[in-house]
Amino acid sequence: MKKKPNLSFWQIWNMSFGFLGIQFGFALQNANVSRIFETLGAKVDDIPILWIAAPVTGLIIQPIIGHASDKTWGRFGRRRPYFMIGAILASLALLLMPNSPALWIAAGLLWMMDASINISMEPFRAFVGDMLPSEQRTAGFAMQSFFIGTGAVIASALPWVFTNWFNVSNVAAVGEKIPQSVKLSFYLGGAVFLLAVLWTVFSTKEYAPEELTEFEAEKRQSSRSVETIAVSAQSLLPGFIRRGLIWLVVGLLGSVLIQQMAWEKELYVLSFGLAAFGIILLTSAWYTRQGMVNNGFVEVITDLMNMPKTMKQLAITQFFSWFALFAMWIYTTSAVTSHIYGTTDSASALYNEGANWVGILFATYNGFAAVVAFLLPVLAKWTNRKMAHAIALVCGGMGLVSFYIVKDPHILILSMLGVGIAWASILSMPYAILTGSLPAQKMGTYMGIFNFFIVIPQILAASILGFFTKVLFSGHAIYALILGGFSLLIAAISVLFVDDVDQG
Q1: Is the alpha carbon torsion for 97, 100, 103, 105 positive or negative?
Q2: pLDDT tens digits, residue range 414-435?
Q3: Which residue range(s) make up the domain with 255?
Q4: What is the reported pTM?
Q5: CATH number for the domain harbouring residue 331
Q6: Dihedral over Cα of 405, 410, 412, 418: its sign
Q7: Total count of domains within the chain
Q8: What is the C-alpha radius of gyration for the chain, rounded to an integer number of angstroms?
Q9: Burial (CB count <10 Å: 0-12, 13-18, 19+), residue 261
Q10: Which of 128, 291, 293, 490 has its CA 20 to 30 A from that of 186?
Q11: How many Å is the maximal CA-CA distance in the chain?
């Protein structure tokens, strides 16, 4: 068996550099979109449903792109064409977002932006599995975490920097709705996104599919042929039908219950989602019964049902980790401005001061993440990858819970230290653990499927957090952050039970 060669530091740097641009897009989105929504008239309990774009587009786009990139090979390689297409579209969305004249247009542009970012981002995860040998994968994902942190530090702080360093107005001019500081931040972000991704596209050469097969000969049998897929799909046919019917009925009954109880309309996202999953399984059953298994749809659903054990275990950890992150991204601005700054008037100077400070806090946790990214492989060697991830998640959970007791906004930087440690680990350790359990020729597909356990908790958060905030939390967004903190603690416990088959 021919072994993949180790890559140099600068080769790993170049292949990961595109994540700097990708995170510029995500950081500007995470730190400013809730602010844009509120400025355009959204109520605090309406914000989660507006954010539904991010997880839904990820749920749809990532497995499609992952499966397609597994089967792509051309002039620009296997994954790189998707890097480039996504970067062009995302940069366009970043230019348009701060010029949204109405709330519905901003929500639509969020869909476009997130779909485009997902097109670029998903193949990057598989890229590490393609290019690096097992012993360098933890370092490879750590390098991605470094660029994610670095990009987010700069991007999250941009409105504050433009206001305090360059005297750019932080309040919208007469006749406009979005401050100039926010507009300029998005314009710069669009340029950086495109240029950083192009750096990776033109500086890194991919291995051809034949080389990957030769490098990982022991995994050839895991890369199933059409005949094997047919057999596997046929064996799953009863499960497709049974589970499909169950999820369809549960979703429909849930929708009826929401209607009868007059609950928040956001909950329909959850009930419709369950019904839609049931329909997907039943559609897979129909295709399989007709013998039409040689298509991407059936392959992805079959692979979903045949996930490796490690992937199933990590799904639990991912679920609680990303539920917490989504709660933080949605509600930090509202929590800080109302609980600490004491204002809910989005047009006031005090609100915008607090919103700018949230940008600094987001930059802070990403800055900590950029530094910690290089320390995590060391901690993993001293302990193991599971324990390192558990420690990091506990730090993040305590950081979010501490928002409730902090009164001085400057002290929140210490809270963000814990969040930054968790963020660095969330971006690297689960993927380092997962990659060793995946068949080489389905790396993109399984990375796309793994994204289900990132976006499903976000969809759940978007569905129920508005309801919780309005009904259970009496409009106090700070309690959503506390809920996120406890979710990270649950994730920390769950990762200790994961089977890391490729620890090294």
Answers
A1: negative
A2: 999 999 999 999 988 998 888 8
A3: 220-304
A4: 0.75
A5: 1.20.1250.20
A6: negative
A7: 2
A8: 22
A9: exposed
A10: 128
A11: 68
